[in-house]
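Quality-control log, excerpt.
Job 1 of 2 completed; input and output follow.
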Amino acid sequence: MSPERQLERIVLGSRWLLVPLYIALSVLLAAFGIRAAVEVVHIFADLFTASEAELVLASLSLIDLVLVGNLVVMVSLSGYETFVSPLDRVSGLDRPSWLGKYDPGTIKLKVAVSLVAISAIHLLHEYLSAEELDTTRLLTLTAVHLAFVVSALILALVDKIAFAAHRQDPH
């Protein structure tokens, strides 16, 4: 086998080095599931003594965990299928309908939009939980949130300009 062919095999095979990272994301997803269960236990333990605002804040924390969990699933499944190996059908497991339809650019855009949603929830959480409104802190958090919004919009615009023609369905 020629040296060039060996090098190509090594480079192509190196994609399997990503597998431990996707496994780590799966373990992280389990941690989010455990944390969500803890949040639900706290919500019900304090249900009759918590104020409406405290219940809303606890709900926002749970929603935040769900959004991040969705993000982890989307990145791990689509990343594995895009960069490592197609996911074969496994008996008894449903394949998400979106799997195989997202390219890396679409995944980046979905990550950016998810970050905007997570940032908005965090900002609302900070606003609702503030005993005294620290204007400087809230303005800083708002600026960070707006930076996420602007970044997501720019990413969407660049994606539309650069890749929209490649995604057109000929039918």
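Job 2 of 2 completed; input and output follow.
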Amino acid sequence: MLGLDREQAISVAAFVLLLLVSVSVMGMSLQARADAVRESSERREMLSRLEAKLRVNAGRPTAAPPAAFLDASTPGLASAQLQSYLGQLAGDKNASLVSSGGEATKRDDTPDTVRVQATLDMNLQSLRAVLYQLESGTPYVFVDALSVQPINAAAGRSVEDPLLRTTLSLRALWRRGAP
């Protein structure tokens, strides 16, 4: 019978250990490659679904509904329509419209942009309601600037629900309507 001396046994054990490490590294490498292939195929499938969805939606118009725009024949009438809408909204929300007027369009504005600056007196709850309605209702109105000051600030005492003087810079889009 062949007898292994101690050096041969250590060499055989080291060889077997090296063989096991090599096989496990190769197995992990193959597993990582399989995971990458699976993930790549999932991404390709997701991409093809998105492309199909885009092809389906390509025929649909993505324009805003007609109610989103002010309908007037001139920019001046559109500005007056926006001021009227703001006055009605202020009245519905227990606010008083102090003043409003058209603002000059800015250089980077599109020709269908109407600007209005308005000053209102209202409490905080009414301010929240007016801002929410302006930003979420129709016609689409964008609040570009907002300035809020308490009206009775000179008294120096704290009021639970103070009256606020609010200045809004508003912007809306209009479409040329019938004259």
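Post-run check on job 2. The first helix runs from residue 6 to 57.
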